Amino acid sequence: MIDNRSNNKTREPNPQNQKEASMGVSRRDFLKLSGGTVLVASLGVNLDPAKAYAKDLRIKNAKVTTTVCPYCSVGCGILVYAENGKVIQVEGDPEHPINEGTLCSKGSSLVQMANNDTRLTKPMYREPGGTAWKEVEWDWALDRIARLVKDARDKSFKTVSKAKVKEKQPDGTEIEVEKEFVVNRTDAIAHIGSAALDNEECYLLQKLVRSWGLVYIEHQARI
Amino acid sequence: MTNHWIDLKNADVILAMGGNPASNHPISMKWIMRAREKGAKLICVDPRFSQTAAKADLYAPLRSGTDIAFLGGMINYILDNELYFKEYVVNYTNASFLVNPEFKGPAELDGLFSGYNEQKRNYDKTTWSFQKDENGIALKDPTLQDPNCVFQLLKKHYARYTPEKVSGITGTPLDKLLEVYKLYASTGTPDRVGTECYAMGWTQHTVGTQNIRAMTIIQQLLGNMGMAGGGINALRGEANVQGSTDYGLLFHILPGYNPTPNASLVDLATYNEKNTPTTKEPQSVNWWSNRPKYVVSYLKAVYGDAATRENDFGYSWLPKLDVGQNASWLMIFDKMLKGEFDGFFAWGQNPACSGANSNKTRQALTKLKWMVNVNLYDNETGSFWRGPGMNPKDIQTEVFMLPCASSVEKEGSISNSGRWAQWRYKAVEPVGQSLPDAEIMNELYFKVKELYKKEGGAYPDPIVNLSWDYGERDAAGKIKHVDIHAVAKEINGYFLQDVYDTKVDPPKLIGKKGDLVTSFPSLQADGSTSSGNWLYCNSYILKDGKEVNMMARRGKDDPTGLGLFSGWTWSWPVNRRVIYNRASVDLNGQPWDPKRPLLKFNATKLSPTGTPGVWEGDVVDGGGGPAGSPTGKLPFIMKPDGIASIFGPGLAEGPFPEHYEALECPLEENSMSKQRVNPTIKIFGDEMDAAFSCDARYPFVCSTYRVSEHWQTGCMTRHCSWLLEMQPQNFVEMSVELAKELGMTNGETVVVASGRGEVKAVVLVSERFKPFKIENSTVHQVGVPWHFGWQFPEDGSGYDSANLLTPNVGDANTMIPESKAFMVNVRKA
């Protein structure tokens, strides 16, 4: 089975990047600082009232990381509190200059998007004519997809394509001629998606599907 | 967005038209309201009294699909009353350019421009050109009096858009129309700025691109482009749709808006020649003249050492479209229905609900041999074979549903609508066996490559030569896990050799081999640099010997007070926060409005190289001094002429936007001209593409829209119980008058039907819709949100997708489907 655990270790935001703009400590500031960053002592202010307030909150032992909302394109900052490998709370990042700690109904519900009993947790497969999903192993599914990609590509691959183009004649006039051009593509596979991916993934994905020779490449931006 | 979210606070007038920020970008309202607190006015123009309208100082209704008539009337009002910003118009736009005397417009040709070919449904654009002098520079009349100058042609074109005519088309009451015109046109002075916020309410039309162009003409006339608090702001719909567009996940562009190559561009030299604009205008920066540097640097990032000067940097490995081949969304499903595809990837997307004419999409999926769907949740696309009306046993498609990690289970950057690329951190491990998308790509890359290495096959070169070096390898040479930072750095780009500036003597070292490139002016066309996406070059740099991820920065300084927050994350290009910011200053480089000093030329301060004169404020657009100085540069650096285009000959329908009705509309005739619909749209003619205009069976105008509690097809919100509780199911919103006419009451379930499909919906009777008076008749409009689907909630209580109703037709330039104006019936269930 492909291991999904050791990829890109969970990281805290770099404290160097987390310089506090305000020296006043709100409840949120305190909670954020207590969640794993190191600036509490350097603030030189009395945190007792905030500590007392936070003492019994369920996030007191949580690790906090910053994220950006995955819904609309405003790009609101969100603090994600996790404990024992599970997201237990989200709230608007009070330091974020766009949302200044506020969130809409969707952003506030992010905890339900991540922790959800209906999330897919295993690769699923439906055979031709099949009436139900079957759970399958990653390696099996990906081997099978690679085989299908190769077969479709090999069968359909166009190295050249004929096209009518206008060609300038010595006398300056243009006539339409049919010519053969190198195209190196497959028209047998199409790909759509996705605006839900990270930039780095978008880059990898266009690199990958173009290396296979796809030109039918689209996503949400077109609709 | 040319500007960014916080910048909305700097506006004097905000026009929300073609978008509904209060519902769909709720936090953006913080900045609109911040502007209002300082005295700004919010105008909302929408067929429905939306949540944005509820917060607006002025609301005006219009019938869906008539935005060009509305905006054309505003252009006419501005010109008639001489409310334009003359100095800006003369110096920074092509208003003074003289057009080919053979050019004719709709005023003379009954709705058409010169050069129309009825058979091909397109234009020969020969006459849409400028008169030029012997050096190839456009002839100009700075007095704007020449009858062939753009300004006079604009006047002639929009003189037909009188308030009375417009009101008759749009259904906007005349007094409201004039109130909007007056208020928005008040920003035509140097000390007042207006901005526009639009979304799919403008793009999802057969005239979508021209809707936006009409607004750009207004913004040019009023001098609002490039200003803090100005610009044209596309409120994009998804967290990273800006980034996924920037990264070229589209048939027509490679990363960084370089066109995809077609068959006639036989080698790199031909590609560059065809796609690199030239200019004789001495003051033009003509930034796209750098295109060859960006394309070669891209090829070096993609193919690494295998890309050499000898093999054209691997240019032939890129797949080529046929000349004129359109591989866009509607074409994909049209071809899929005809059985032309074996395989299909729907990666992080749910086309069975999101694409227009979903019945066609769903039928098309049954014609596939195989499909791969990557998602967080099961959805209507992955499970299409068990959807309504499907018999699984008859469907031979092999389907894979692959679980991916959510946004808090991996790290990487996303770009918001204001072009800020912001880094996200990983909070927890992916649930179950789900994998970050990058890991799935990594597996597929190696598995396909292995097959080609083992078995050979059709043209393996692009596959085996692809560079893929993102971390530690196992014994077989496979990357164990993708290091996202390595990808981010490849995107930024590296110096592959020591690179020198040879324009100075002795040549000066710009960058050392192996170092990250600092920003895109250092990229080269000779293969000595790489950059996966030139627009993001400067996002991950070397500073004082350390690698710095600019997208993860959290600096809060705001020295101008304009909310640029230049130290917070990173914005493309080169951390510039307002695009075309050079247009915010006069010919001497001083702000048009000193209260909004986005940019300022300080002539006495010495630059780092010791020459006098530096720009202060935002990162200046392009180099050089103010436009009025002998070495100065014009502000619109991406345009070959250096100025903005009021006359825009690049689009399919014509250089000025003209009103045409939607493909499906309630009127038999377009009262502007004989051309009822956009003469350049592609007509899909098959049974599943049916359209019914002015047909008694489908009497009501309909528009799809969104609600705050759901997002897109609902795949990522229907599963959240809090959100589903607030908006549990599909509804059809209608006026009190129409509900009375149809005998329908709040809460009853009815059927909404179009020529393509039907969907159940709960009736929502509201004061937000009012019947329109169009010419002399009453036209009703209804609305349906598009967030629902049969697959979840599993009991079917949410009903199905509103895209079962939408028509199979796209904008003539972009092919974005017309989901915002079509005709339906509403009947008892």
TrEMBL record, chain B:
Its EC number is 1.17.1.9. It is found in: Cell envelope. Pfam families: Molybdopterin (PF00384), Molydop_binding (PF01568). Its cofactor is [4Fe-4S] cluster. InterPro entries: Asp_de-COase-like_dom_sf, Formate-DH-alph_fdnG, MoPterin_dinucl-bd_dom, Mopterin_OxRdtase. Residues 2-445 form the Molybdopterin oxidoreductase domain. Residues 701-820 form the Molybdopterin dinucleotide-binding domain. One of its GO terms (molecular function) is formate dehydrogenase (cytochrome-c-553) activity. Keywords: 4Fe-4S, Iron, Iron-sulfur, Metal-binding, Oxidoreductase, Periplasm. Gene3D superfamilies: 2.40.40.20, 3.40.50.740, Dimethylsulfoxide Reductase, domain 2 (3.40.228.10). SUPFAM superfamilies: ADC-like (SSF50692), Formate dehydrogenase/DMSO reductase, domains 1-3 (SSF53706). It comes from the Bacteria. One of its GO terms (biological process) is anaerobic respiration. GO terms for cellular component: cell envelope. NCBIfam families: formate-DH-alph. Belongs to the prokaryotic molybdopterin-containing oxidoreductase family. This is Formate dehydrogenase major subunit. It comes from Desulfoprunum benzoelyticum.
